[in-house]
Amino acid sequence: MAHSVSAMILAGGRATRMGGQDKGLIALAGQPMIQHVINTIAPQVDHLAINANRNQADYAALGYPVIGDNISGYQGPLAGMAAGLAWSPSERLLMLPCDGPLVPNDLVARLLAALGDGDVAVAHDGKRLQPVHVLLHRRCLPSLQRFIAEGGRKIDRWYAELDQRTADLSDQQDLFVNVNTPMERDAMEQRLNPTANNCGHDAPSLPVEEALARMLNAVTPITGRRQLALRSALGQVLAEPITAPAPVPAHDNSAMDGYALRTIDAKQKSLQLVGSAFAGHPFTGTLSAGECVRIMTGGVVPAGADAVVMQERAERDGNTVVINQWPELSENIRRAGEDLQTGDIILPAGRRITAADLGLIASTGQAEVTTWRPLRVAFFSTGDELRSLGEVLEAGQIYDSNRYTIYGMLNNLHIEIIDRGVVKDDEAALTQALDECAADADVVLTSGGVSVGEADYMVKLLRAHGEPHFWSIAMKPGRPLTFGRYREAWYFGLPGNPVSVMATFAQMVAPALRKLAGENPPYQAPRFQLPCLSDLRKKPGRQEFQRGRIITTESGQRAVESVGRQGSGILRSMSDANCFIVLPADAEDMPAGSQVEVEPFTLT
Ligand SMILES: Nc1nc2c(c(=O)[nH]1)N[C@H]1C(S)=C(S)[C@@H](COP(=O)(O)OP(=O)(O)OC[C@H]3O[C@@H](n4cnc5c(N)ncnc54)[C@H](O)[C@@H]3O)O[C@H]1N2
Ligand code: MOO
Ligand SMILES: [Mg+2]
Fold it and tell me: Which residues lie in coiled coils (predicted)?
């Protein structure tokens, strides 16, 4: 690209014909509408930003800077343009609307060619100018600011004041098709995704990495703190760092059972035993020439001593000690402050407290710590077929197992749990349950009903009362994992299949819950390569999380084997396994002996 170009996508409109819904975020073929614009524009420019005045957090979750109008109220595109020109890191700035998802791949090149050394190149569709598809030179900012300050509102009047050029895009009618009404949205959905029954699942799914990045970008940690007695803090997240109030150990002490002595006396035939220093019972005097003190491991090294000899290297007869092998200076002395020095940060804020940490904190004498309050997660299972334990199964019914796996995994994250039971596939009942959960908890988690079946309501309800961020990812199992906001809460809709629940929780939900709970950085399970002893079946398209077992072969080599059938309904594959075998999206069948990436289970 000859010139550096930035782009700003305009998403600041009021969308009155969409019932006031934020147009850029409206669901279209599996992604928010603006994402379609981003997908084709981002590769054409050096920098990209979104101009939005509402739902800025949701836009920010897409991974680009969000710039609001700095003129208050909705002033139409001119205010957005002024904000864009003020932001633009490049000399040339492309502006285009968020509601025209069919953007050509050469739009920037064509506008650049038309602009030449002019101020603004405005797209022409063959009939008229399209004033919000423009490439502007950054030097136009003062002119625009003056125009707005003088009360100017009409965009073409302002262009008329500039050195205006026209870009003939009459062969690109699609670019100017925009979505203003729910009917137009449905028509666009059909164009982008003709085979899908208005459901979006055949649409290109988000790569797992990108879905994860968006989720982590969107959520911000909770802020309430509490003071806890040390033991109750196990598994909680520190809100403040722990510092050492005094050195640990507090004194020089012995690493061996033996005798404390002065190495300067090494020429002496024998030493005089003048006392003892047991752990907890220091010797209070000072060693003089030719003297030693009986000392036990952990005993304070007496004043004057500069080494300890282990008792195996000395012989004692009454109060006379003969040293058979003299120690070096400082040998067997553990120095004060060797573990911790006063003021050392021993554990940072954001740390989830382990058993080792409890001990470390206790070693500094601190009985209480400040942690973030626990994250509250409310969850329920959806499905007319589900029965709870203790109930009798009738034809076509099954026991609800997802609430148990979810309970277990949430517990392993030390989360405060609200179990809302089983909810029927009924819009009113589901809405009521979602409302109650969102009012009580930071996060609402459900299983089932996120796919495209006629009893799958969750994505629809999220659209009605919240904001879906994504609902189709290139992951197996777990494609319909849904993430967004439901009223004031974060929402995770896990697919109903029992293995999909566990895989999406481990891979996607847990990192987000960890961040929400204040963990910083959120724990990441280790992954490493191992030879795989089984043939693996894999179709290219989705990243797969197959279930495997890390084993040691008879020859002592570490390897992984598949646990066998990988259906997303076969829960036994999870309890038989001890790791995920992580296969990249484009991988195909792999013969036994291939190297594969494995991730040991951490929450199961
Ligand atoms: N036409 C299409 N059908 C399906 C697609 C698709 O893209 N197009 N995706 C499939 C995939 S992948 C998954 S995963 C599932 C997800 O389904 P839902 O999230 O809608 O879940 P349900 O339909 O409610 O249930 C699916 C399955 O899981 C069983 N289930 C549900 N809840 C529980 C529970 N609490 N305990 C035990 N088992 C449960 C349920 O009985 C079903 O068998 O959609 C595919 N379909
Ligand atoms: O994603 Mo589904 O979980 O393949 O079965
Ligand atoms: Mg379903």
Answer: none
Ligand nearest 201 Cα, by number? 1
Considering 516, 542, 572, which residue would you say is the last residue of a domain? 516
Is residue 19 domain-shared with residue 134, that is, in the same domain? yes
User: How many A from CA of 61 to the centre of ligand 2?
Assistant: 25
What CATH number is attached to the domain comprising 477? 3.40.980.10
- Assess whether 322 and 241 both reside in one domain: no
C-beta of residue 89 within 8 angstroms of C-beta of residue 6: yes
ipTM over 0.85: yes
**Sign of the torsion angle spanned by Cα atoms 335, 341, 342, 347:** negative
Say how many domains are in the chain: 5
Residues within 5 Å of ion ligand 3, judged at the Cβ atom: 451, 453, 456
398 alpha carbon, closest ligand: 1
Q: Is 477 in the pocket of ligand 1 (CB under 6 A)?
A: yes
Please choose from 450, 494, 497, 504 the residue to mutate so as to test ligand 1's pocket, defined by most ligand atoms within 8 A of CB: 497
Is 6 in a helix, a strand, or coil? strand
Q: Which residues are annotated as a binding site for Mg(2+)?
A: 99
> Are 172 and 230 found together in one domain?
no
* Count of CB atoms situated within 10 Å of the CB of 604: 18
Q: Is the CB of 534 under 6 A from ligand 1?
A: no
* C-beta of 449 in contact with ligand 1 (< 6 A): yes
| Whether residue 172 sits in one domain with residue 28 | yes
68 and 111 part of one domain: yes
Residues of 271-289 as b/e, b for ≥16 C-beta within 10 angstroms? bebbbbbbeeebbeeebee
pLDDT in tens, 224-252: 999 999 999 999 999 999 999 999 899 99
Specify the pLDDT at position 27: 87
Tokens representing residue 549 in the block: 């077992």
Mutate to test the pocket of ligand 1, among 198, 385, 391, 451 (most ligand atoms within 8 A of CB): 451
Domain of 564, in residue numbers: 528-600
267-287 pLDDT, tens digit each: 999 999 999 999 899 999 999
DSSP for 158-201?
A: HHHHS-EEEEE-TT-GGGG----SHHHHHHHHHHH-TTS-SS-T
* Residues 41 and 173 both lie in one domain: yes
Are 56 and 152 members of one domain? yes
pLDDT band at 198 (very low <50, low <70, confident <90, very high): very low
Q: Which residues are annotated as a binding site?
A: 10-12, 23, 51, 69, 99
What percent of the chain clears pLDDT 90, i.e. is strictly above it? 84
For residues 383 and 422, the answer to whether their CB atoms sit within 8 Å is yes
pTM over the 0.90 mark = no
Stretch 394-399: mean pLDDT: 95
- Residue 16: pLDDT above 80? no
Q: Give the pLDDT confidence score for residue 76 in this predicted structure.
A: 76
Q: Does the CB atom of residue 497 touch ligand 1 within 6 A?
A: yes
